Amino acid sequence: MDSGSNGIGLAKIQVANSPKFTLSNFDGNYRLGLETLTLQTNNKVTLNVFATGYKEVDEEVDISLREVTEQNFSLERQGN
Predict the structure, then answer these.
(1) Over the stretch 2-38, which tens digit does the pLDDT of each residue have?
(2) In angstroms, how far is the first alpha carbon of the chain from the final one?
(3) Longest dimension (CA), the chain
(4) pLDDT for residue 29
(5) Burial of 23 from C-beta contacts in 10 A (0-12 / 13-18 / 19+)
């Protein structure tokens, strides 16, 4: 989402230091499947979020191994 609470289409959500990624749909929703080996210590993973016209966001996320983890991101528009 951008700071105005709008979904951002085609944002790239990538696992840090990994080729594993997905793209958001035009509503800003995404799904990223992770294997246990991808996780850092304590079931955490760092996700990098990129979108054209927005500042990149890096965020550490706690992942549940038993259920779907929901994570929203707020992206700020880049200045001109």
Answers:
(1) 555 689 999 999 999 999 999 999 999 999 988 766 6
(2) 20
(3) 43
(4) 95
(5) middle
For residue 3, give the nearest of 68, 74, 60 by alpha carbon. 74
Distance CA 24, CA 7 (A): 9
Backbone φ and ψ of 17, nearest 5°: 60, 35
- According to DSSP, residue 21 is labeled E
Instruction: Provide the residue type at 13 as one letter.
Output: I
Alpha-carbon distance 5 to 7, whole Å?
A: 7
Contact by Cβ (8 Å): 24, 14: no
Give the β-pairing of 44-50 and 57-62. Answer: antiparallel
Per the structure block, which two tokens stand in for 1? 């989402």
- Collapse the DSSP code of 43 into the 3-class scheme (helix H, G, I; strand E, B; otherwise coil) and give the result: helix
